[in-house]
Amino acid sequence: MYTFKRYAPRLFIPKFVFNSLLVLGTYIILRSQIHWLQLSGAQENRFNAYLVFLLTTYILYKIAVLLNRQNHHLVFHPLHVQFKKQKIPYSNIAKVSTRRNMLDKLFQTYTLCINKTKIKGLMREHLDQYLHTLIEAGQTNTLTNNERLE
Q: First vs last Cα of the chain: how many Å apart?
């Protein structure tokens, strides 16, 4: 069994920046529109406090989700590859490809696509070649096992 960890900053920083900008934009828009509600000074302060509390809670929730997501690693077992709770036998893998988008180029990572599963934030190059070798070995192992059954 071989565990392949993903590059944490590639997973965390873009989502954190996006969510922070989203919260900042929401705060600015709601804060600029507060005069339409015609609130008194105390009500305006209370509204502002609720708004800051809700947006801070949202950011903390997103940080917790992102930190939890970093714990999902790519695990190579003798007969299958596992990502999150999904187990893909080597004999069932039909397509393996790699992609690099703008964020991948920035963080010097790439995205591995196994069938329809995308695994972002991988650092080592040629992992797809290693996976092709395991697929071939898995298919050979499956053929050998099928011959033994007959």
A: 29
**What proportion of the chain, given as a percentage, has pLDDT over 90?**
11
**Based on C-alpha coordinates, what's the Rg of the chain?**
23
Kindly state the helix (H) or strand (E) to which residue 4 belongs, with its residue range.
strand 2-4
> Model confidence over 57-75: pLDDT tens digits?
999 998 898 888 777 777 8
Other CB atoms within a 10 A radius of the CB of residue 85 amount to: 6
101 φψ region: left (φ > 0), alpha (ψ -120 to 50), beta (else): beta
Q: Measured between alpha carbons, how far is 127 from 140 in angstroms, rounded to an integer?
A: 20
CB-CB neighbours of 11 under 10 Å? 20
- CA 145 to CA 130: how far, in whole Å? 22
What DSSP element (H or E) covers 94? none
Confidence of residue 150 (pLDDT cuts 50, 70, 90): very low
Strand order in the sheet with 96-99: 96-99, 110-114, 117-122
Query: How far is it, in rounded angstroms, from Cα 94 to Cα 131?
Result: 12
Closest C-alpha to 70, from 114, 10, 20: 10
